Amino acid sequence: ICRGLVALEGAKEKSDNEDAEMNVNRALDKEWETKPLAEILEAPLSALQGLTPEDDQLFGKCRVKTIRQLSNWKFARWAEAICDFAEFENLDGKH
């Protein structure tokens, strides 16, 4: 979600349609649904559905405090790569 939001930031900057809107309401807590993308990217992780202020504190210990920072965090990127390749994993032990 975080990487997608950052990617959309770049697309929105290049868009000719100033009125273009995105609907990521199911990814964000209610209070963040109407905020501009730039503000969402600098929001605490608890702005994401399912994360809490306690999660903000835990991620803060890893120096990840915003949605933008999580999008670039190497461990999140590794997890994303593992998920991407999971569908291609061969579980029968054959190559």
How many β-strand runs? 0
String of helices and strands: HHHHH
Poorly predicted regions are none
Radius of gyration: 16 Å
Bin the helical content.
Answer: 40-55%
**Beginning-to-end CA distance, first to last residue:** 32 Å
Q: Structural class of the helices, strands and pairings?
A: mainly alpha
- What do the pLDDT scores average to? 88
Strand residue content: under 5%
Give an overview of the whole structure.
The protein has 95 residues and is mainly α. The protein has five helices and no strands. The chain has helices at 2-14, 37-41, 53-60, 67-72, 74-86.
Task: Give a brief outline of the structure.
With 95 residues, the chain is mostly helical. Helix content is 47%, strand content 0%.
Topology of this protein?
Blueprint (H helix, E strand, L loop, with lengths): L1 H13 L22 H5 L11 H8 L6 H6 L1 H13 L9
